[in-house]
Amino acid sequence: MSYKSKIGAGFILLLAIGYCSDDPQTSSAYQATKLDNQPKPTQLSQVYSTPRAEPALYSRYVATENLNVRHRPNGSKVSSVKFGDTVQIYESRPGWVRISKTNDASKWVSSTYLSVTRPVRRQTIQPSYSNSQPSRSAYYKNCTEARNAGVAPIYRGQAGYRRALDRDNDGVACE
């Protein structure tokens, strides 16, 4: 056997050993089947996948009349959101939250004015004054008249109080 034929036979032997190796990760047969077992895209949409929508971390409600939306924390105002509106939170920093998706124009609001629960408008209750209370210009000739009107005792600062009706000057007339 010639020198060249020995080298050729040795090369073929090395290939055969690599092909039939006990280590499946290094065998040529494994490498060939690994490439064949790759999933093949069946549609064009699988080749060019669209990015998934960025999920919001959580949502909150606006708990003030108008909440300024800014282009960055403490930045200039770009818009506003109204009382009771729901905002989606995508990022949080101390005192501020981002309410815009990553690819959209940046929108930040102060987290101080956001609520976990839907806010309810508070009703302002106007005090009602009954007709039984004397007006500021009430005048009682004496304590008997004040008692008959149902306002005795009369305290200093109340309608109808006069120094003349407060004998001991303790701030309470017609006691």
- Helix segment tally: 4
Q: Spatial order of the strands in the main sheet?
A: 4-1-8
Shape descriptor reads rod-shaped
Strand content: 15-25%
Instruction: Decide which structural class fits the backbone.
Output: alpha+beta
Return the CATH class of the domain at 58-115: Mainly Beta
Helical coverage, percent range = 10-25%
| Element order: H for helix, E for strand | HHHEEEEEEEEHEE
- The CATH architecture classification of the domain at 58-115 is Roll
Main β-sheet: number of strands, strand sense, barrel status?
3 strands, antiparallel
CATH topology of the domain at 58-115, which one? SH3 type barrels
Quick recap:
The chain has 175 residues and is an alpha+beta fold. It has helices at 3-19, 28-36, 44-47, 143-148, and strands at residues 58-62, 66-70, 77-82, 86-89, 91-93, 96-98, 108-110, 114-115, 154-155, 172-173.
